[in-house]
Design a protein that fits this description.
Helix content is 54%, strand content 0%.
């Protein structure tokens, strides 16, 4: 097992301590869990989208294709700032 010593500012240390306390876990375990979660990029990307892919391709929502659209862009009033968020 390797040991790593890291210098943190007082603010960083306090922030880390608060997160660990909120999760009721030692700081060292919090850091180990974070490092374990890094994994390789491809595996991480797959894990992040597993639920989305399962929902999209699993057929659970296929019945919605036969449902009529309830609302169109002509319905309702525009929301202020909505146009800038769509871009």
């Amino acid at each position: 097992m390797r040991q790593l010593n890291v210098k943190l500012s007082e603010k960083q240390h306090e922030r880390l301590r608060r997160v660990a306390a909120r999760r009721r876990t030692p700081v060292a375990w919090l850091i180990k869990d974070y490092v374990d979660s890094l994994g390789d990029d491809d595996a991480e990307r797959v894990r992040a989208h597993e639920a989305t892919q399962a929902a999209a391709h699993g057929g659970a929502f296929a019945w919605l294709a036969a449902e009529p659209d309830l609302y169109t862009e002509a319905d309702g009033k525009p929301v202020a700032g909505a146009a800038s968020r769509r871009r």
